[in-house]
Amino acid sequence: MSYSQNAEKLEEYTASNGVTYKIGDEIKLGRGSDTNGKFVYANVGGWAVSTNPEDNRLGAANAGLIVTVKKINKYNHKRYKGVYFIVGGGNITNYTLDIENAIQSCEVENCAQESQTVTTDKYDQLAKLKKLLDDGVLSVEEYELEKKKILNDN
């Protein structure tokens, strides 16, 4: 399926995770989000594409692979929308990376769930700390010291 004529070519793209990606940048893949560990949003591209979409998914063994951004394309076709990176993983085959869905599913590092986890963990820790103060387990001084550590670490 070729939508290249409908692609807006970008030099850089600021994604929902706050990272501005540019051509030449490296991205570390996270884990595949499919139940079998395969990647859903990172697929084989170029000459090696199979007619079976399942065959195009990167396998679970590619977790941690560092890929280089070669092209950034933005599509606004009625059935094909979003920002897709053409990336290389050090071999002769290029891959297509649906960057926003990869961020949401943590198929790339610096993903949405990682930033939510840090925020949630910080507030969970503060709530537990406050309960220890309220229950008399911690003194006010101990509470303030621990609270400061949590806030400074995050």
TrEMBL record:
It comes from the Bacteria. InterPro entries: SHOCT. Residues 124-151 form the SHOCT domain. It holds the Pfam family SHOCT. This is SHOCT domain-containing protein. It comes from Algoriphagus jejuensis.
